[in-house]
Amino acid sequence: MSDYGVVIDTATVRMERTLSGSVDQVWAYLTDSEKRSTWLASGIMELKVGGQVTLAFDFKCLTKEITPERFRPYETGHVQSGHVTQCEPPHLLCFTWNEKNGQGSEVRFELKPQGKKTLLTLTHSKLPNRKEMVNVSGGWHTHLDVLEDRLSEQEPRLFWNTFLQMEKEYQASIPEYPAANA
Predict the structure, then answer these.
(1) Could you tell me which residues come within 8 angstroms of residue 36 by beta carbon, excluding any fewer than 6 positions away?
(2) pLDDT tens digits, the chain, 182 residues: what are they?
(3) Is the dihedral of CA 53, 58, 63, 69 positive or negative?
C-alpha cells in the first residue's frame, strides 16, 4: 500500500494509511478538538448527521518552521465550516469541507481494525477542479503524516517542508482534465 493519494475520478482523491493505534484511538484524533488540533485543526464537531463542523487551523501549532509567504494569510486563525453528512462511531465520519452557501466538497473517513493498528481510508470528493485536487492531496498527505507521527508518539515532521514536496509530486502526478474540470 502506498501513502499517496489515488485519483478516483475528476473530482475525487482517496488515501489509505495503516496507523498505529486502535480504531477508538484514531477516532479520538478525528473527533476530539484537542487531539485533532495536533495534526489538523481544532474546533466544534457535532457527531450527528447535520451537526456543525468548524475547523480552526493554526499552523504555528503544527510546525516549528517558518510559514512560506503564500500561506501566511492562513498561518493562524483560518476557519472553515461544514456539516456532518454521515456518522457511525467509531468507523465512519463524513462532513462537508469549506462549505460556502450550502456548497462544499466532502471528506469521508473510514476506520477498520488491522490487528493492533487501524486502516484509515480518507476520500475527498466533489472537488471543483484539478487545482483544488492537487492542493487537498498535498494537504491531506501532509496532515496524515503528522497524524501518523502523533499516533506513533514521534516528533511530528515539518509541515511546510513536507507539504511543498507533496504539492510538487501531486502536481506532477494528477492528470490534466478537460477545461470543464481544470
Answers:
(1) 29, 30, 42, 43, 45
(2) 478 999 999 999 999 999 999 999 999 999 999 999 999 999 999 999 999 999 999 888 888 898 899 888 877 778 999 999 999 999 999 999 998 887 899 999 999 999 999 999 999 999 999 999 999 999 999 999 999 999 999 999 999 999 999 999 999 999 887 554 44
(3) positive
In DSSP terms, 17 is beta-bridged to 120
Torsion of CA 109, 180, 104, 138, to 10 degrees: 50
In angstroms, rounded to a whole number, what is the distance separating the alpha carbons of residues 132 and 102?
18
Say how far apart CA 134 and CA 6 lie, in whole Å. 11
**Strands (DSSP E) along 21-155, which ranges?**
52-58, 76-88, 92-100, 103-114, 117-125
Q: Which amino acid is at 135?
A: N
Q: What is the domain partition of the chain in residue ranges?
A: 6-174
Burial class (CB in 10 A: 0-12, 13-18, 19+), 108: middle
CA 63 – CA 143 distance, rounded (Å) = 11
Superfamily of domain 6-174 in CATH is START domain (3.30.530.20)
- What do you get for the CA distance between the two ends of the chain, in Å? 28
Q: What is the pTM of this model?
A: 0.93
